[in-house]
Amino acid sequence: MSEIKTGHPNGLMTLFFSEMWERFCYYGMRTLLTLYLVKSLMKGDAEASLLYGAYTGLVYAAPILGGRMADKYLGYKYAVILGALLMALGEFLILGGDEFFLFAGMGALIVGNGYFKANISTIVGKLYEEDDPRRDSGFTIFYIGINIGALLATTIVAYVGETYGFDKGFGLAGIGMLLGTFIFWSGRKTYAAAEGLEPTEEGKKKVLGPLNMVHAITIGSFALIPMCYILIMQNQILDYILLGLFIYISYSMIMAGKKEDAGADIPKWRDRMIALIIFMVINITFWACFEQAGTSLTLFADRNVDREIMGWLMPASMTQFFNPFFIIVFGSIFSVMWVKLSKIGKNPSIPLKFAFGIIQLALGFLVTQVGFMFVNEAFQVPLLTLFFLYMLHTTGELFLSPIGLSMVTKLSPKNIAGTAMGAWFLSFAIANYVGGKIAALTGGHGDDGVVLTAAEGLDKYLSVFSIIGFVLLGIAAILILLSKRLEKLMHGVN
Question: Structure pTM?
């Protein structure tokens, strides 16, 4: 396989820019969604947070289906293209301007993301041999692309949406997705060496006249949009759906591991699947708290943060740009750091990396208590509070998220690579849904006709953020104590 000057496979850059524009689309939607629900559709804080949590939860649950369909029928390339077009359609549907078109657009975005997200990450993993030391570095580079897209979305889309109208912001996000689709298709030769790109023999089988399974799945994907619409509206049933999916996928992965171990003296793959499930639980904990960025932290910024900079008032949604900004600043440093630490035998184990990430996330929430020491007469903390909060959250993210993507490709058997990646994104689904429930605890503005004063709102936000911080520190301590046992289950993966 030929390589680019950075020492990585050629296809990495094509996938980098494709994912960048997909994230521009997703974060463009995410950045504006809570404020759109509260300010345009006049939803209360708690209701808006739960709708946001249901949407983002389903976004990350969908890759389970998308990964499985790609593994068994579609192939990774077709799945990514189908997903990209559905996501673009979703953004343009929202331009209808009312609740019906919003939820229909959210449905298309959910289904599309299911196909795109799991499978483009899987293609990245398949560019490298199983024991390639460049893999973690490659995923970190890929992760920088994700965050360049997020940075563009949280600045350009956020500014356009809050200044010129939410519809303009959503439309701009859709155009970005079309650009990402073009890059992925036009650069297909650069990642052609990856396995599993084309439809499988099962996918080519005829099911109805001239229609094969690929055609049937494509048509069925559009039928899933109204189902997602209903699930967003009736989001309380997601409690049972997500729990059931987690139990099912955990059982399926353990069974797949046992099958892979057939005849072996040591249950290596079974143990690795158990380790992956444990990391999924840890991942849920981290991201349920991290994803306050799109809900409680955005509303906190809107009401209780002094966002004025030299006479210019920063839009509240734009404060989310701190996260991708710090990813870009620190991402390359971390990429190089993991390689250098690995060469000298000082690279922390994956469990320790996860623990260090959780500690930094905790400290980020506790920074709000420091900000309270400098509160102004309008009960607003300085903008620097969010600056340092997001800096700590971001460095915590870099200890955990790109490492997690790489970890999944190393822990899972090749024949269920897409399914395992989908399972990993299920943990994000549960995290986002739980995150919506956590955000609802900070609410009160507009719910049941109650409107909190600035002082009451600030007190409620800071109280919840403080509890989150201390609980996370306790979880990190437990993970450090159990790190050696987790390493044993991983059978040499690091």
Answer: 0.84
